[in-house]
TrEMBL record, chain A:
<feature type="domain" description="ABC transporter">
    <location>
        <begin position="8"/>
        <end position="244"/>
    </location>
</feature>
<keyword id="KW-0067">ATP-binding</keyword>
<dbReference type="GO" id="GO:0005886">
    <property type="term" value="C:plasma membrane"/>
</dbReference>
<keyword id="KW-0677">Repeat</keyword>
<keyword id="KW-0762">Sugar transport</keyword>
<keyword id="KW-0813">Transport</keyword>
<keyword id="KW-0547">Nucleotide-binding</keyword>
<feature type="domain" description="ABC transporter">
    <location>
        <begin position="254"/>
        <end position="498"/>
    </location>
</feature>
<keyword id="KW-0472">Membrane</keyword>
TrEMBL record, chain B:
<dbReference type="InterPro" id="IPR001851">
    <property type="entry name" value="ABC_transp_permease"/>
</dbReference>
<keyword id="KW-1133">Transmembrane helix</keyword>
<feature type="transmembrane region" description="Helical">
    <location>
        <begin position="262"/>
        <end position="279"/>
    </location>
</feature>
<keyword id="KW-1003">Cell membrane</keyword>
<feature type="transmembrane region" description="Helical">
    <location>
        <begin position="115"/>
        <end position="135"/>
    </location>
</feature>
<feature type="transmembrane region" description="Helical">
    <location>
        <begin position="9"/>
        <end position="27"/>
    </location>
</feature>
<dbReference type="GO" id="GO:0005886">
    <property type="term" value="C:plasma membrane"/>
</dbReference>
<feature type="transmembrane region" description="Helical">
    <location>
        <begin position="210"/>
        <end position="229"/>
    </location>
</feature>
<dbReference type="Pfam" id="PF02653">
    <property type="entry name" value="BPD_transp_2"/>
</dbReference>
Length: 507, 333
């Protein structure tokens, strides 16, 4: 096969759902030995495209060529037989099974008598893992691995079936920096061997690092397809959003000298050790560190979720003790949790119920809610934060991730909190919504509120923070001005730990 | 008022009307004033208990204990009236208090002991029935107090008393669920307990409160049961807990918690009782009644599960899509 022939070619793929044209004549050419980025904002038709490629659904029209010959990917089994493996955003591994079992799930080697050939399962799995340079035993129960390792097992499934094309949907959403590097190394190795890789990501810094070619979708159409190796991030962003968005990180300097919160020697049983820092009025204090370094645990300690076993928190100079979340909320703290779906939103409520959930006491008199005030405040916040007006009538499960995140933040605007802890506030939302969140951060700090920002996106953390506290193993190892750090410094500072063992870092 | 009478009521209301029409057309005596009056008496006990069962379900719990608790409380009431000699005016509030306390006990074990309510109330279902048998050597106690019967059979302006209890408690419940902090917290806890914790809602207290409400409403049902038969018996209330849960489910309450309308439970209870009444009037054996009740529950949950498909179908039929049919999109979102 000459490298000039595309391994897969998708020509004029069109797919419509009732009321939406999800893909409109999309063309993608995937070359062997090339990493192809598929980019676009939420709702641009990426997921639809992936479903079509992996045989989950059929296009309404268009042609699919495999090695130049037209084929029909009628179901996922056919896709598998044609050498297409898809690693979906939500893992499809079974946590209670061993790594080996997961790798061969649905495709177990059998011996002559029809029983599973365990020796082969383990040997083959071990071979695949060794080939990938992953140091995990095939007998390990998958659920006991870190999220990053589970992701690698997911990819091992694709390697084991000898896939000629691998589709990765947001593969790094749950990974820490060192795990991302490991994944990228693996992808480079696969590229060397001539595998075609379709890489879908929201993280443009990664795209820049690893992708050879790029296709950008907007409103279901291809707006830009590039075969160039050098890709300019700001061009990509403009192409995705459809307009020149100007500054990607519109940071304002609003920090003052007044200390609003002071933590001294905080410790908890969940792994926070001797954490001390101060937070100024109007400041954004970034918490940097690898996944599992204890940043979320520090947030929980501040918010009264985890009991303090040592240390002292002072608010405006006065010592406080939060026994439960409600104490912290009453004192003016707010927590936007890392996982808005599981810990943030009430999907059974419209925007109003979500916005007022933390302020029901103030909204009621003798236990009776002031529903007029609730509707009015929600109405205003929806306009103000440019949240989809559908949120007023429909339950929030109908909204996009960006709108959902704004609603969680709106909850704490409504409760008039002074100190907001934002844990991964832009994870999984598109660029336009990210910028809206950044502007919201500016607005809050301008109004004298203070923010503790936790983010795994180093560029974002560097750009939006005034100071950055580097967290390792549950403690703050140093605090520096964000302007004094570069991306590489931060990566090194948060990951470079002599005493670190991989297990510990993931704990 | 728009808030209380929302679109969630349309389905259960339609189901009730359709069932009533079918029974009315096939059964002559159904529309007799005597039968309709009897119907409201029949529905009252299960519908009042179902208020508690539904509120527990709203908070993502389940209460299997109410049937046995009815038996236990009728025996305690009978014991107090017949053998201890406590006057009725004192005995009734005591029974209500006891119902609340039993609910508190179940709620505390469930919420603070972190045992699923399915287990705690299953244990209570078995244990309360046993406790009821420890009174009077396990025999029923009859002829308790002549003043007891009017509580159930009495009439005010010609309307049976249970009708007023239904109106009072359903109005109170609908108000609480839709206009109070507690009601909102119950829906929040049922919708997403993790998020509720992080918004400062005392999840365990709210969960416990739902069981106190359930215990209290079960006590109300137990008093009506005793009044209806002027007796107490360890055999009363068998499968009543399932009928109450069925009323909630037929009324559209999601067993996953967080969604449903309390007034729809009343319609669910009516639907069930109308079917039973129709089968009774046609002299169907109780075996058939149970089979039909089972099918109704299955159908009601099925309709809830297939809501998206059904609303899509309705949308195509009537040229518009319904926005409120959302109960199962949660997982996909």
């Amino acid at each position: 096969m000459t490298p000039a022939t595309p391994l897969w070619e998708f020509v004029d793929i069109t797919k419509a759902y009732p009321g939406v044209l999800a893909n409109d004549k999309v063309c993608i050419r995937l070359m062997p030995g090339s990493i192809h980025g598929l980019l676009g904002e939420n709702g641009c038709g990426k997921s639809t495209m992936i479903k079509t490629l992996s045989g989950v659904q059929q296009p309404d029209s268009g042609q699919i060529l495999h090695n130049g010959k037209p084929v029909t990917i009628s179901d996922p089994q056919v896709a598998r037989e044609l050498g297409v493996a898809t690693v979906f955003q939500e893992f499809s591994i079974v946590p209670t099974l061993s790594v080996g079992e997961n790798i061969f799930l649905g495709n177990m080697p059998r011996s002559r008598f029809g029983v599973i050939d365990w020796a082969k399962v383990h040997n083959e799995a071990a071979r695949v893992l060794a080939e990938m340079d992953v140091d995990v035993s095939p007998e390990t129960i998958t659920g006991s691995l870190s999220v990053g390792e589970q992701q690698l097992v997911e990819i091992a499934k694709a390697v084991a079936m000898d896939a000629r094309m691998i589709i990765l949907d947001e593969p790094t959403a749950a990974l820490g920096e060192d795990e991302i590097e490991r994944l990228h190394q693996l992808l480079r190795n696969m590229r060397e061997r001539g595998t075609a890789i379709l890489y879908v990501s929201h993280r443009l810094d990664e795209v820049e690092r690893i992708v050879d070619e790029v296709t950008i979708l907007r409103n279901g159409c291809v707006v830009r397809a590039s075969g160039e190796t050098k890709i300019n991030v700001s061009e990509i962003v403009s192409a995705m959003v459809g307009e020149d968005i100007g500054e990607h990180y519109p940071k304002e300097q609003n920090a003052t000298k007044d200390v609003v919160l002071e933590a001294a020697g905080l410790s908890t049983n969940s792994g926070v050790k001797d954490v001390s820092f101060s937070l100024h009025q109007g400041e954004v204090l970034g918490l940097g560190g690898v996944l599992g370094s204890g940043r979320t645990e520090i947030a929980r300690a501040l918010f009264g979720t985890d009991e303090l076993t040592g240390g002292q928190i002072r608010l405006n100079g006065k010592p406080v003790r939060f026994r439960r979340e409600i104490d912290a909320i009453r004192a003016g703290l707010a927590l936007v949790p890392e996982n808005r779906k599981f810990d943030g939103l009430f999907f059974n409520f419209r925007a109003s119920g979500n916005v007022t959930a933390a302020s029901l006491g103030g909204l009621s008199r003798f236990g009776v809610l002031n529903l007029k005030a609730e509707e009015q405040a929600t109405h205003d916040l929806i306009r103000d934060l440019e949240i989809s007006t559908q949120a007023e009538e429909k339950t929030v499960n109908f909204l996009s991730g960006g709108n959902q995140q704004k609603i969680v933040i709106a909850r704490w605007l409504f409760s008039a909190s002074d100190i907001l802890i934002l844990d991964e506030p832009t994870q999984g939302i598109d660029i336009g919504a990210k910028i809206a969140v950044y502007k919201l951060i500016n607005r809050l700090t301008r109004a004298g509120k203070s923010i503790i920002l936790i983010s795994s996106d180093h560029d974002e953390l560097l750009a939006m923070s005034d100071r950055i506290a580097v967290v390792q193993h549950g403690t703050i190892v140093r605090t520096v001005d964000a302007s004094d750090l570069t991306h590489d410094d931060l990566v090194r500072a948060s990951a470079d730990t002599p005493q670190s063992k991989p297990k510990e870092a993931f704990a | 008022m728009k808030r209380i009478f929302d679109t969630q009521l349309i389905g259960p209301f339609a189901a009730m009307v359709i069932v009533a029409l079918i029974v009315a057309l096939t059964t002559e005596r159904f529309l007799n004033p005597g039968n309709l009056s009897n119907l409201s008496l029949q529905v009252s006990i299960v519908a009042l208990i179902a208020i508690g069962s539904t509120i527990v379900i709203f908070a993502a719990g389940i209460d299997l204990s109410s049937g046995s608790m009815v038996a236990l409380l009728t025996m305690i009431l009978a014991q107090m009236l017949k053998f201890v000699g406590i006057p009725l005016v004192l005995a009734l509030p005591l029974i209500l208090l006891m119902g609340g306390l039993l609910g508190l006990f179940i709620g505390l074990i469930t919420a603070y002991g972190r045992i699923p309510s399915f287990i705690t109330t299953l244990a209570a279902l078995i244990a309360f029935r046993g406790l009821a048998l420890t009174f009077n050597n396990g025999s029923p106690i009859f002829s308790l107090d002549p003043a007891l019967e009017p509580i159930f059979y009495g009439k005010l302006f010609g309307v049976p008393m249970p009708f007023f209890y239904l109106v009072f408690f359903y109005v109170l419940a609908a108000f609480s669920m839709n206009f109070t902090k507690l009601g909102r917290e119950i829906y929040a806890v049922g919708g997403n307990p993790a998020a509720a914790v992080l918004t400062g809602i005392n999840v365990r207290k709210v969960q416990t409160t739902t069981f106190v409400i359930a215990g209290f409403m079960t006590a109300v049902g137990a008093i009506l049961m005793s009044a209806r038969l002027n007796s107490g018996s360890p055999n009363y209330g068998q499968t009543l807990e399932l009928q109450a849960i069925a009323a909630a489910v037929v009324g559209g309450a999601s067993l996953a918690g967080g969604r449903g309308n309390i007034l729809a439970t009343l319609m669910g209870a009516m639907t069930i009782v109308i079917v039973q009444n129709g089968l009774n009037l046609n002299a169907a054996p109780s075996s058939v009644q149970n089979i039909v009740l089972g099918l109704i529950i299955l159908l009601a949950v099925g309709i809830d599960m297939w809501r998206a498909e059904i609303s899509g179908l309705m949308g195509r039929m009537f040229g518009r899509t319904s926005s409120q049919q959302s109960s199962n999109v949660k997982k996909e979102a």
